[in-house]
Amino acid sequence: MLRKLFVCMAFLTCIVAHVTFTNLKCNFTDRKIGNFQHCHIKAVNRTHKYVSVHANIYTKPINNVTINIRCMRYNSGYKPFFFDVTFDACKFLKQPRHPILILFYNTLKNRSNMNHTCPYNHDIIVDKLFTGDHELEFARYLPIPMGDYAIYVIFYIYKVKACTINLYLRITN
Ligand SMILES: *[C@@H]1O[C@H](CO)[C@@H](O)[C@H](O)[C@H]1NC(C)=O
Ligand SMILES: *[C@@H]1O[C@H](CO)[C@@H](O)[C@H](O)[C@H]1NC(C)=O
Ligand SMILES: *[C@@H]1O[C@H](CO)[C@@H](O)[C@H](O)[C@H]1NC(C)=O
Ligand SMILES: *[C@@H]1O[C@H](CO)[C@@H](O)[C@H](O)[C@H]1NC(C)=O
Ligand SMILES: *[C@@H]1O[C@H](CO)[C@@H](O)[C@H](O)[C@H]1NC(C)=O
To answer: Where does the secretion signal sit in this chain (predicted)?
Structure first.
């Protein structure tokens, strides 16, 4: 169980050679709340890719966000893989507790303007999130199973399903 936990945490944090982004899908399910200005993966060179997302928000300020994050592993379709957590993002930002969420947040916070407490009075931007930015020591010592994975994220704003972001990853040797 501990190993699976680390595998999941290591998704965005382990060494570059092992992880590559394969696809990114963003969808505003409620177009009254916002719209994705862009949502893409760019390749810098053969080994480095980054993710950039810009969400325009129409219903500012936002003071109540619930997020569901699920890890999936490909095995004749994407199947739930260990991690499925729903949390109140504004509460989390005020007082981060959950250790895996803290890891996700640490991966993201230097690359996103979501890195402050609520309310949000601006568009949401994730700028150039690299796989290689946050190498962790333990990732070197853990056997990470090869394969295709996905991280499914759903955002609820004031309890209304607002948008989904699916990030697909491949782990190779
Ligand atoms: C995006 O969300 C809308 C509204 O829920 C849905 O009808 C549509 O099929 C979704 N698009 C994709 C590509 O998932
Ligand atoms: C690819 O780009 C990254 C980021 O700019 C750089 O750190 C890395 O050394 C580059 N790799 C190669 C093979 O050029
Ligand atoms: C967000 O709204 C839900 C339901 O209305 C409530 O339970 C929760 O405490 C709110 N969160 C914040 C940070 O206000
Ligand atoms: C965050 O970004 C700053 C400035 O770009 C950089 O100096 C710092 O090392 C980064 N921190 C991490 C943990 O990547
Ligand atoms: C928040 O993100 C911005 C970039 O969007 C960065 O310049 C800043 O250093 C980040 N702050 C923290 C506390 O990570």
So the answer is: 1-17
